[in-house]
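Bug #77: duplicate submission created two jobs. Keeping one. Sequence:
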Amino acid sequence: MTIPTATWRIQFRNGMTFDRAAGLVPYLKRLGISHLYASPIFTATSGSGHGYDVTDANAIDPAIGGRAGFDRLVRVLKEAGLGLILDIVPNHMAASLENAWWYDVIEHGEKSRYARHFDIDWSRPLTLPCLGDSFEQVLENGDIAVKADPQTGKPALACYESFYPLAPETWQGQETEVLALTDKAEIAALHQRQPWRLTSWRDAASDLSYRRFFEITGLAGVRVEDRAVFDDTHRLILELVHSGAVDGLRVDHVDGLADPKGYLERLRQEAGPACYITVEKILGEGEQLPADWPVSGTTGYEFISSLSDVLVDNSGIASLRRAYEQQVARPVAMENELRAAKVLMADRNFAGEFNRLLHLALAIATQEGMTQSESRLRAALRELLVVFPVYRTYGTAQGLPEADSALLGRVVEAVREGANAPDSQALNFLVDILKGRLSEPAIRDAVTFRLRFQQLTGPLMAKSVEDTLFFRHGMSLALNEVGADPLPRDFSPARFHADMQRRLERQPDGISSTSTHDTKRGEDARARLYALTEAPGLWAGCVARWSQINQHHIVTLDDGPAPEPAVSWMLYQALAGVWPVRLQPDDNAGLNALEGRYIAFVEKALREAKLRTDWGDSNAPYEEVVLNYARQLLAPGARAFLHDFTTSLQPFIRTGLVNGLTQTTLKLTAPGVPDIYQGSERLNFTLVDPDNRREPDFAALERLGEENLSLTPDRDFDGQLKQQVIARLLHLRQQMPTLFSRGEYLPLSASGNRAEKVIAFARVGHEAALLVIAPRLVFDAVNGSDPGHPAGWTQTEIILPERLANRRYRNVLSGETISLVDRLTLTALGNLSPLVLLSDELSGVGINV
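Kept job's structure:
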């Protein structure tokens, strides 16, 4: 297996095609990338902006160049010596009429060849939640009629612009009569004879007959655990792997599958041992990837969480939290807030999935000859789901693995001891189901319950934390990231070191990410916002002052002020994170360009919070007032605020630039395969999707040259230094792959008056060693409140263990050589650039860009 030394994630669609990507290959080679890492390329719904709504898993999307364009890209990659990793989507496909399999299921119902390809409950008609109201009301409005499908000529139920095929037995032999139907009662009767039902989209959360991807009814779950379904959905994928066109696979949302381990074992067997495979998997606090999965690791969200241990000032986070609580005028107990979000998800957003589990449990009780109170069983099931601390367990038809059984035991104990402890008998019964401690007749349903339970805990956790709680409470938006723990904790470099040592042991070849198409903000926005923990009082004072300046834009509505204090705090912090480095308050064009992106984020944030408005039940008066407030922040008439904001933001901007370079250096030298998300090799200040999926300025990226690396990080206003550091270190990784993939990770200790201001470690291999020392917590040094900082660094040292001492080292970034005895004095850290020192054994190796 060829392990990538570095990947570069590219987002196809939205103008990016295979031929355009091929044009970037010379640049990627110069940058030092080993593998292009592609978003899904298979045929998706018309106009798809991401490709995860696949309509044909065995065809390459013509919208991005089709098979011919793909082959051209592969040829260019191979000629340049680069590999290709594909993002594949085994969990779901588009529930769209454009999907031939889904169309066939609609037309033929349970008799369709593909009826078992999708995870559909065939005890009832297939629900198609496409209406804006009830079927009866839409029919009464005249928006449903019987017409010939313009594509097939067959009779169909036409609704708006869509044509739903009628089951052949309901029209064959009487086509003329069916097409002539105009009476609403007759159309309703025809609808009732179909194997499907048109329903309101509002009913999907509580009444859906198929498993969906999270809350997205347009994505139907696929039963890839079935061998025939696996074969049908992976035919082209495996062909591309076996032909050598594709070197690796990234498995999207592996936790959505009924049996992730079983799927991965089959994928490994079919793809072969040489295929590099990673999985998109969120690891909870202290959780590790199952050791028996035949993959190289995850896609790296946990690495982002580890970085926060380096860049968050633990001594300031409590002050920032107090300032936030003062802003919102109440203490915030995140444990309670998390519970409230999970209860909301269980009771409302996933009501259908929850009720299916409940009814299955009641049916099992009947099979067992037991009497179970539905209300008590409901309370026990809800509590079990709400208290569950990780995405899921990995039980199969054979039962729960030992580790998961132990985890379930701890969860149950927490449920029993909690303030909302349910009926003990009902809870015990659910545990018996999950562990399969039932009579033989009930085992089959118990297995179904176990699998469905595991497929619900993940979406419930994700939507509760990432897409609810993180939009409700923005004390520190830098910490509100995919894969992050929402509960308060301590931050320390020691935790980072421990994480990296585990990473080297558990998944040395997993991907290390800092930005993705799903992160809540770009890596440099996050790096900037970490700095708030270093100056919480300054930030709180800024928010108070800005709130006062813009007080006249606050409107009191029937349900309270808009925006409320928590939202105001979020608005200013989000704006601080996305603010372009060089944007000035009198740059109207720049402000207008930022406004569109910012307003789209604010609308999404308000709806995701699900407090005073929601996607399903929007509060237009509230939204308009808050959006107007946000617009006014960037309006030409807001000169007083804009001048104050721009001036006040400068210390955070400067600190963020240093943080960003430290973050990048750690990613490129710590265990794992670094991924560069398109455009992030320069500065990435994006907001949540779709903003983070915008096309970067490729022309600017390609201007990669041999610029002088002496530029200090706090003046790297266009990301030039960041890009150069990436290029130098990626080429070093290519020349010394074993050092980075298997070299020991050795934490190093600093002493002196700035010992807490550095993070230091070594990567030690058989032939060479690499010392990595990077600045942290530099707010005071960058902004002049830590006078004489070059001299201060001369009093800070890294003590070298014996095997790293008495060597000659070369600075990989500057080219300078130094001889070290038993310590490294950090004079060179005075300009706040990281130090990356390669030991003398291989110090003569040329690092070319």
